[in-house]
Amino acid sequence: MSVKFTEEQLNNLDKAMLIQLFLNQQEQLESIDNKMQLLLEQMADMNRQRFGRSSEKSDESNQLSFTIEDGEIIFNEAEAFVDDYFDDEDEETITVTRKKSKGKKEEDIKGLPVEEIPHEMTEEELKDFFGDEPWKRLPDEEYIRYKYTPASVSVEKHLVAVYSGSKSERMVKANHPKQLLRNSLASASTVAGVYNAKYVNAMPLYRIEAEYNRVGINISRQTMANWVIQCADRYLAVFYDYLHEHLYDYHVIQADETPCLVNKDGRNAGSKSYMWVYRTGKMYKDKPIVIYDYQRTRKSDHPREFLKDFKGICVTDGYQVYHSIEKEREDLTIAGCWAHARRRFDEALKA
């Protein structure tokens, strides 16, 4: 607690004491100013975290990207692209004549099936127009348009011939495709369509169910969920194990984990789980590998088991689990991520 002096006391102090009091006041003011500046920076950082963008995005166009593709998905995509070309605030009208590139339309439709639709006039129509004047046919005008046909579904009914010996009980069947799932209506094309809609186009199963209902197909989301799980276990698990083993052939990989909420895995609905992701480094562009490993916890046992046969450099964030595994092994090196190293400087700059 600071000492307060009266005017009379200050008048009775000598010069040395007054100088010392002044210096002490300077130190106190400097300390208060530093604390005030720190509080202002903390408030600015908290406001940015609460009201600012949650994703990090640099304005530098020449900065290396940390992902293969831009993962940002916006709802009003068309409006966003239009805003890049048109400025509402600029009232000046500028007319720009652009030279059309030859062959672009032909290049766009290259490889697509072409259906020719002739449009001709009858003899009566031509006589009504020309009368007694002779006429001749000129080269046709061509108009090219895209034609989109919504998805259509048909039923395949396989009739497998069965033969039996007249005198013996031996039987034989004609060669036929094996069933994807026994006693199920699922076919390879149908399941592939569900996989594409759910995991490529990010459509939930209830929307896929509604889409099928609109074209007259009754496939419940429970049935599709069963198809997805069983086919993944029977057919895709082989590719997963192969990619996991092939991942060890690369010298540099990346690893990260993110929380996710799971409704049903033997625990209460909404329990927090973790999706661990391992992928090849940015420099391997020809054949990149990305593998997801679902686990209930964030314990070190999961990356320790997944990376047990990997020898090389693993780029991660600052999670201590990876560094603990590095200390246990001599053939594994944990490298820091530039994006995470940049994050603290970016926060300090914005504050």
From TrEMBL:
Q: Which residues form a coiled coil?
A: 22-49
Task: Check the record and name the InterPro entries matching this protein.
Answer: Transposase-related, Transposase_IS66_central, Transposase_TnpC_homeodom
Extract the GO molecular function terms from the UniProt entry.
Answer: DNA binding
Q: Where is the Transposase IS66 central domain?
A: 184-350
- Can you give the residue ranges of the Transposase TnpC homeodomain domain? 39-117
A Pfam family of the record is: LZ_Tnp_IS66
Presence of the UniProt keyword Transport in the record? no
The source's superkingdom equals: Bacteria
- Keywords in alphabetical order: Coiled coil, DNA-binding, Homeobox
Listed PANTHER family: BLL1576 PROTEIN, PTHR33678:SF2
Could you tell me what this protein is called?
Transposase C of IS166 homeodomain-containing protein
